[in-house]
Design brief:
- This protein has 4 domains: about 120 residues, Immunoglobulin-like; about 80 residues, Immunoglobulin-like; about 80 residues, Immunoglobulin-like (Sandwich); about 80 residues, Sandwich (Immunoglobulin-like).
- The chain is mainly beta.
- The chain is about 15% helix and about 45% strand.
- The longest helix has about 35 residues.
- The protein contains 4 helices and 29 strands.
């Protein structure tokens, strides 16, 4: 019994004394490469970049070292062996060694290598890891891993070609090299993409155009220097104005209160006319204006059109409905009245066809008038014209008849009494004579009054007594000049 107990005890101790690094199965190693979008790389193109991760499944035992050797196909170039903040990296030639900085881990997924697709040689890309192993102080596991994928076939040429705000013809195809397009602006923008991102492109972007045809070449240059040229013939036709309005429309005979956006007008013309005087100004200097229906206007309703044609051919019409008033053809064009001696007699007021009443002045000696009248129409009938007696008449009438219309002109007669003019003339001369006499007497009276005021008083001078007889006998008589006496006295 004791022997069995000791045998069991020894067995248990031996079990617990076995090391814990013993692993039942070898872990699974893998290598996966991802493109720039984070997806597993597939059908790559030249210049694409891939990142390759080493993955190791969960281990029963923690590890702290990952190392290995790598190789890759000729159509790849190594960009770098990647650093990782959780690991220390040692690298040399085509090998790497990562040592975990912290505690041991039992699972690995770490990006280790970055490559760029160098060329398209028709082969798939391939990355291999040899002597790949993970280990700790007690145990290590080794394996190998690889990754491969195809490179997309790259044909030199365009994947797209377009002109902004325009449509090229025919519809784009990579194999069609010649296209046409029409534009109305002097500048265009050409957009294009290549089938291969390794190809270079020229001839795209903004282009200045000349009026007419412009040939633009879009050139695709492959990596090997071969070229593919796409020809784009751009026809530039400046945009034509579509403005077909007027800024001004006037009718001399009638104000129509014109507005640019009002296209119908209804007007009444009181006087007969066979044509209206129409002036206009187009909004666009490139528009053309034509007036139709403004000839041989008739009484009543007439339709006149002012047609504006824009540069692009679009049209707008301003319609004028002109209502021409009916003319009374029983109206006189002219009226002349002469006395029996052939002298013209003045009408008051001055003759106008629509004025029906007039006054004339004649002397009592005039008993006959010679009346001349002219109608607007040869078909009118006149009554009261020619030699007309006005003896004992204060007025005469001239009747004009045209169809159903009738107009009567009344001439009122005023007479001057014979000799009235002579009497008026004599009276006028008498008045003038009285005025002249009055002025003469007034002037004479004024002269004497003024002279009297200005003449000085003459003092009497005593003369010595002389024997007049002696003076007469012995001497010549002494006569003193009165003017001298006046002057001397004035001086005193």
């Amino acid at each position: 019994m004791k022997k069995r107990f000791y045998v069991g005890l020894v067995f248990l101790i031996s079990i617990f004394s076995l090391p814990f690094t013993v692993k039942a199965d070898n872990p699974n190693f893998s290598l996966v490469c991802y493109d720039s979008s984070g997806k597993v790389a597939n059908n790559l193109s030249v210049k694409d970049v891939i990142t390759c991760n080493v993955k190791v499944d969960s281990l029963e035992e923690n590890i702290n070292v990952l190392e290995g050797k790598y190789s890759y196909s000729d159509n790849l170039e190594l960009v770098e062996v990647l650093e990782n903040s959780a690991w220390n990296l040692e690298k040399s030639n085509n090998s790497f060694k990562y040592t975990y900085k912290n505690n041991d881990i039992d699972k690995i997924n770490i990006a280790v290598l970055k490559f760029r697709v160098k060329k398209d040689d028709g082969n798939a890309i391939e990355v291999k890891l040899n002597n790949l192993l993970v280990k700790n102080d007690n145990k290590e596991y080794s394996d190998s891993a690889s990754f491969s994928t195809e490179i997309k076939s790259c044909v030199n040429g365009l994947a797209s070609l377009s002109v902004e705000d325009a449509t090229i013809s025919p519809k784009f195809s990579s194999n069609t090299l010649n296209y046409t397009v029409k534009v109305s602006e002097p500048t265009i923008k050409i957009n294009a993409t290549t089938l291969c991102n390794t190809s270079s492109l020229s001839g795209t972007g903004e282009k200045e155009l000349e009026e007419g045809e412009n040939t633009i070449k879009v050139i695709v240059t492959a990596e090997d220097g071969s070229k593919k040229i796409y020809n784009l013939v751009v026809t530039y036709e400046p945009k034509k104005s579509d403005v077909a309005t007027l800024d001004e429309l006037k009718i001399k005979e009638k104000d129509i209160n014109f507005k640019k956006d009002t296209f119908e007008y209804d007007i009444d013309i009181e006087n007969q006319t066979d044509k209206l005087t129409i002036t206009y100004k187009a909004t666009s200097s490139k528009a053309k204006v034509e007036v139709k229906g403004n000839e041989d206007l008739k009484e009543g309703e007439n339709t006149i059109k002012v047609i504006v044609t824009a540069e692009d051919g679009s049209k707008k019409e301003y319609v004028i409905t002109a209502n021409i008033a009916k003319i009374d053809k029983s109206i006189l064009e002219d009226l002349i009245i002469k006395d029996d001696k052939g002298n013209d007699i003045k009408l008051a007021p001055t003759f106008k066809g629509k004025t029906k009443n007039y006054t004339i002045m004649v002397t009592n000696k005039v008993t006959t008038l010679d009346i001349e009248a002219t109608c607007k129409d040869d078909e009118c009938k006149l009554d009261g014209v020619g030699k007309v007696s006005i003896k004992d008449k204060n007025k005469i009438e001239i009747k004009v008849t045209h169809g159903e219309n009738e107009t009567v002109y009344t001439i009122n007669i005023r007479r001057e009494v014979t000799g009235t003019k002579e009497k008026k003339s004599s009276s006028l001369w008498l008045i003038i004579l009285i005025i002249i006499i009055f002025l003469i007497f007034t002037g004479i009276g004024t002269y004497f009054i003024m002279k009297k005021k200005k003449s000085p008083k003459i003092k009497k001078v005593k003369t010595p007594e002389v024997d007049l007889h002696e003076d007469i006998i012995d001497n010549e008589p002494y006569l003193e000049d009165p003017d001298t006496i006046i002057k001397e006295t004035h001086n005193e």
